[in-house]
Amino acid sequence: MKLTLEEKLIREYLIKIAKKNEYTVYSELCDEIWNRCGTKLDMSIPEHRGRIGSMLGHISRYENEEGRPMLSALVITESTGKPGSGFYKLAEDLGLYTDSMDEKEFSDAEGDRAVAFWQSH
Fold first, then answer.
1. Contacts by 35-42 with C-beta closer than 8 Å and gap 24+?
2. Buried residues in 28-41 as b, exposed as e (16+ CB within 10 A)
């Protein structure tokens, strides 16, 4: 699997925040996409949410194929402190998550795994 240039730049940003043991919210990610890629995305626009979700999904699928944690666990909503629903759907597709698991516990654990991996590399 190959990442697009935008996805590579977003991945670099997510690795950077993982190394600092930080999370980001979707609106901050939109700002980073604008700064790094010159693409203006707005979470209030459904098509833009879909595009962000698609990019994050590709990045996390790529990471999973390489045996690494899902970097998209580090992108959360301000209101819930959890990733969006697409994160859990992808994790389920990858065999990492089932709907019998607690969403917050799973996403926190996956975020911790991403932080631990990237802080050691």
1. 36/9, 36/10, 36/12, 37/5, 37/6, 37/9, 37/10, 39/6
2. ebbebbeeebeeeb
Phi, psi dihedral angles at 75 (to 5 degrees): -110, 115
Range of the domain at 110: 5-119
The residue-averaged pLDDT of 86-115 equals: 97
Distance CA 100, CA 87 (A): 15
pLDDT, tens only, 41-79 = 999 999 999 999 999 999 999 999 999 999 999 999 999
